[in-house]
Amino acid sequence: MNEAMTQDTGPDLDTAQIFDTAQLTDKNKVIGLNTEDVDPVAASPGHRLGVPWDGEHPNLNDHPDQTDSPKRSDHPHHSEPNHPEPDLLGTDAGATYAIGDVQGCFDDLLRLLDRLDFDPAVDHLWFTGDLVNRGPNSLGLLRFVRSLGPAAVTVLGNHDLYLLAAAAGAWSAGRKDTLGGILDAPDREELLFWLRHQPLLWHDEQLNFVMIHAGLPPQWDLATAKARAAEIESLLQNPSHAELLRELGPGKPWRWRDDLQGWDRLRYIANCFTQLRWCDAAGRLDLTGERRRLKGAKRSLPWFLVPGRASATVPILFGHWARLEREGYKRLDRQLVHPLDTGCANRGHFTALHLEKGRYTRVRCRNEALPWAEA
């Protein structure tokens, strides 16, 4: 990786956050359901998921009551001609649940899905990225989401790209990372190929939601964001993707210009989709948040609170910011943004949003690998 990948980014960043950039996707492919990975006859509480269960019903004392968010307003949105089979992701067949960063917490995810009474035959899951790393079973989680086929959609987060970089030899896994199971798995190449073909940005016209992992700079409207995402996606899906992964990282440029070219252009785009939390009114990225205490025009704000943000007319689902609520930012649905990362990998909660009803569900995370989940 280039020098920017190894620069000092502050005490709060770990190795995966240092790589905290890019994403990928093939919007025109959704891997079909692999019936060999799913047991349709399991007679446990989560039998429809095709996954063995530990016999324990969720303890309602662990799970705060569901809360309803205010009804979403009707907002204009752009069409997305490249999204595949939108009828599969609509509301006719069942519920659609958007879920925050999973990070390998497979057993906790299954407890959440059991609470939701999720049925992959009629319901759909949207994941905000960071499927892997830090939790106890990234391999099982990745296999499970892939096996759901068109019942699941994910965008890629920084930890997902970190896995791809480690697999490509562009980065070395750190002591806190839990990626070894995937890197040593017999189906490693199939899983990594599938992961490389997931999107940076997902837009569903019928539900009128956009999903990304991190953020968007204030200059980009939805159409621009889709075009910029496609630039990265096409290279990540290319056999020479390792070259791209070596060049990505939290380095300059910090400001967007339409005439940016080469790796600088791609690095800025990737940083927005997978790392962005703070920026100033001019769109200068502040990946560590160190400028948020400045005054005047140089002060950084959460990306979704920048005045005049071009993407402010479309509801956006995102993850990547587990501390957001603790930092005092609440009821953000009024800004048409819905943060869903609530820190499961750090013994926080899993959060799911029922997109059709605007209803949130949370379960407390235990971060414990169940014996059956180690297989």
Order of helices and strands: HEEHEHEHHHEEHHHEEEEEEE
- What about the largest sheet? 6 strands, mixed
Q: How much helicity do the residues have?
A: 10-25%
CATH-assigned fold name: Purple Acid Phosphatase, chain A, domain 2
Inertia-based shape: globular
SSE class? alpha/beta
β-strand percent reads 5-15%
Q: Regarding CATH, which class? A: Alpha Beta
- The CATH architecture assignment turns out to be 4-Layer Sandwich
Total strand segments = 13
> Could you tell me how far the N terminus lies from the C terminus, measured between alpha carbons in angstroms?
33 Å
| Radius of gyration from CA coordinates | 19 Å
**Tally of individual domains:** 1
Tally of helical segments:
9
Q: CATH homologous superfamily name? A: Metallo-dependent phosphatases
Task: Give a structural overview.
With 375 residues, the chain is α/β, with parallel strands linked by helices. It has one domain (11-73, 81-374): Metallo-dependent phosphatases (Purple Acid Phosphatase, chain A, domain 2, 4-Layer Sandwich). Helix content is 22%, strand content 11%. It is built from 9 helices and 13 strands. The chain has helices at residues 15-18, 106-116, 138-147, 158-167, 180-183, 188-196, 222-236, 241-247, 262-275; strands at 67-68, 96-99, 124-127, 152-154, 202-204, 209-211, 278-279, 285-286, 301-302, 316-318, 337-339, 349-354, 359-364. A 6-stranded mixed beta sheet has the order 1-13-12-2-3-4. Strands 5-6-10-11 form a 4-stranded mixed beta sheet, with no helix packed on it. The protein starts with 14 loop residues before the first helix and ends in an 11-residue tail after the last strand.
